[in-house]
Write a structure and sequence with these properties.
Length: 547
């Protein structure tokens, strides 16, 4: 394909001049290098859909309504030829329990879409199942019962989410016996369920966070209201800090760097900056005093800092070894006792000294390329030191897993690398969200779709003239009409074109599948009708991440 750039990239000679201060090293002993940048990039990786398939064959004389409102949770009322009742689980592709004529079936759910089935029998007994067919409450006579779910998130000291899960609580009373409580933990990301011994929804032990991200390896701490408590690895209390008088702050290398700001009288000479009125009726300027300090978290010692700027938003920033020793974010400089109108992106040390100035105030929109970086908001390819190289024309989105940039020309999609070389030609109506198993879905026309690898090599999906649809990223549906059988032959394929399931049928609702959502995940339900059978294919399209 060569190194064709044509109109895709334009050299940024003028743009580079306007960004002359980018990665400008204010000190001689600080270098904004690739390793440091990589340690601080947004680690938000693409999560591929689960893409598993579960097939329900309803060919045994069952009667059902495929507009049953409970289908959106993955369940459906069914009856057999004798009029006996049960519930079909699309998640497990089977009946939840044996058919019964002497039962009233109620499908219920909690606030977090945990769905369960309550069976009430003629003798007054009841039995409760979950949507996977597990017995939550065995058949018996109960005074009362309750099913409850609570969602729990766990994070580190920097408030980065580490885990998310549901606690399922089953409570019931029987005769004069004490209340029985059973607890399960359901992982939010995977849906995996485990039984646990106990759970107290009204409170728990205070969690001590590892303070290593703040530069205090071997120490732990937590905040309670305005107090910050620090302990050593032996759980010995070291010190407590009162943060009630601290407003703007950031933490790095075992220190809090903070600023307090307050109004001073208009005739005061002891002020940091002045704001002149913008309203016609306002006559008096406003003066502010800013006090900047550094607080040692272990000793409590404070040092006053002489800074010529105010913090807008500063966050901890890692060095080349992954330790948080800097701050990075936005400041506004004070010049001639006035605040500048624009913010400046800077990297700071814990003395408040500006180590580097950047045209960016965060790295959230910067992505790694094979030979540099890409800023998705400004559509600019940057070198290893964040110096602008090219502006990308007609930018669409990133294919982050393979460091490729999707662009559009005359409405057709293609992809380029960090040098501007065309890897995927601009001839496709659409490209998939991301590479899965090293392959990307690409649709050229109604009858031609391909999977493409990161070098741009493509492979046609199905036979010439067949129809192909992307079910979810990682799973393809391909079909063609077989004249001999007078039927449609449909195949579900992964991105390596391995056949996951084949179904012969007359008609399907592929263009309008039903959506299912519950505590375990998100799904598409596709219906296939043949002469004497109805088949439902459940596709797990879950792409859960902690948010």
């Amino acid at each position: 394909m060569g190194s064709v750039k044509k109109n895709i990239l334009n050299l940024l000679f003028i743009f580079i001049i306007s960004f002359a201060l980018i990665a400008c090293n204010i000190t001689n002993n600080f270098s904004l290098n690739e390793e440091l940048i990589d340690n601080n990039l947004n680690g938000d990786e693409y999560i591929a859909p689960r893409s598993s398939i579960t097939v329900s064959n309803l060919t045994e004389g069952y009667t059902f309504d495929d507009n049953d409102p409970n289908i959106k949770y993955g369940l459906m009322h069914v009856e057999n030829e004798l009029g006996e009742k049960s519930v079909w689980s699309f998640l497990k592709a089977r009946l939840l329990f044996a058919f019964d004529s002497d039962v009233v079936i109620n499908i219920r759910k909690t606030a977090q879409d945990f769905v369960y089935v309550e069976n009430v029998y003629l003798d007054g007994s009841l039995e409760v199942f979950d949507a996977l067919g597990n017995v939550l409450i065995p058949q018996g006579k109960y005074n009362a019962y309750k099913v409850r779910t609570d969602y729990i998130q766990e994070s580190d000291i920097l408030r980065n989410l580490e885990a998310g899960y549901y606690i399922l609580t089953i409570s019931y009373t029987k005769n004069d016996e004490p209340e029985t409580n059973i607890f399960y933990k359901i992982d939010y990301l995977t849906g995996a369920t485990e039984k646990i011994d106990s759970y107290n929804r009204f409170g728990s032990d205070v969690k001590k966070y590892d303070l290593t991200p703040y530069g205090l390896e071997g120490y732990f701490g937590y905040t309670f209201f305005d107090k910050f408590y620090i302990f050593d690895k032996n759980d010995k209390h070291i010190i407590t800090h009162n943060l009630s008088d601290i407003s703007r702050k950031w933490i790095a290398d075992g220190k809090i760097i903070y600023q307090n700001e307050h109004l001073v009288p208009g005739d005061s000479e002891d002020y940091t900056y002045i704001v002149y009125p913008t309203q016609p009726l306002a006559t008096e300027p406003t003066k502010y005093k800013v006090i900047s300090r550094q607080l040692d978290l272990l000793t409590g010692k404070e040092v006053t800092l002489d800074l010529d700027y105010v913090f807008e938003s500063v966050k901890p920033f890692k060095n080349e070894k992954g330790k948080v020793v800097y701050g990075f974010g936005a400041i506004r400089k004070i010049e001639n006792k006035k605040l500048t109108s624009s913010t400046l992106g800077v990297i700071l040390n814990t003395d408040g000294k500006i180590l580097a100035e950047l045209p960016y105030t965060n790295f959230e929109n910067i992505y790694k390329l094979d030979n540099g970086y890409f800023h998705s908001v400004n559509s600019i390819i940057l070198d290893h030191n964040l110096i602008p190289k090219f502006r990308v024309a007609n930018y669409d989105r990133m294919l982050q897993s393979e460091n490729l940039i999707v662009t559009k020309i005359n409405g057709f999609c293609g992809a380029i690398d960090g040098n501007g070389n065309i890897v995927i030609p601009h001839r496709y109506e659409m490209l998939g969200d991301e590479f899965v198993d090293g392959k990307l879905f690409a649709k050229e026309s109604a009858t031609k779709s391909y999977v493409i690898d990161k070098e741009g090599n493509k492979e046609l999906i199905g036979e010439e003239g067949s129809s192909t649809e992307l079910i979810t990223n990682g799973l393809i549906y391909n079909e063609y009409f077989d004249v001999a059988s007078n039927k449609i032959i449909g195949k579900f394929l992964d991105f390596n074109l391995n056949n996951k399931y084949t179904i012969n049928h007359i008609v399907n609702n592929l263009n309008s599948p039903k959506s299912i959502s519950n505590i375990y995940g998100e799904y598409k339900l596709i219906k296939f009708i043949d002469q004497d059978s109805i088949t439902f294919v459940l596709v797990d399209v879950s792409q859960r991440k902690l948010i």
